[in-house]
Design goal:
The protein is mainly β and 128 residues long. The strands form two sheets. It has a six-stranded mixed β-sheet, with no helix packed on it. Strands 1-3-8-7 form a four-stranded antiparallel β-sheet, with no helix packed on it. The radius of gyration is 14 Å and the shape is globular.
Length: 128
């Protein structure tokens, strides 16, 4: 069964950077759109960034535009999220997910039925 394992979280001061990784196992994620999401304490899980199946298009939440970059390495079956200029409001558990349908666009996450299983997430804490 396909699994996603997030890593790279930690404690960082405001203005700092982190690079999250999402390692996929069980099947290849090449050819599938993917995305990053986060859930802060007491809040619902929200969209952060998405990448289309062929890496041609990316999409970001307004709050992270210009600071976060989503990318992937198909040879390693790994998705990344480079986070710069981190702010306390970025504190959350970060999750990755993959579209269940191949060749999806960067807007795949707008359809709830397209989500696969969630991983355990990785905690990001930004201190002020």
């Amino acid at each position: 069964q396909a699994q996603l394992v997030e890593s790279g979280g930690g404690l960082v001061q405001a203005g700092g950077s982190l690079r999250l990784a999402c390692a996929a196992s069980g099947r290849t994620f090449s050819g599938y759109a993917m995305g990053w999401f986060r859930q802060a304490p007491g809040k619902e899980r929200e969209f952060v960034a998405a990448i289309s199946w062929n890496d041609a298009n990316t999409r970001y939440a307004d709050s992270v535009i210009g600071r976060f970059t989503i990318s992937r390495d198909n040879a390693k079956n790994t998705l990344y999220l480079q986070m710069n200029s981190l702010q306390p409001e970025d504190t959350a558990v970060y999750y990755c997910n993959s579209d269940r349908i191949p060749k999806g666009l960067s807007t795949w996450y707008m359809t709830p039925a397209r989500f696969g299983p969630w991983g355990q997430g990785t905690q990001v804490t930004v201190s002020s």
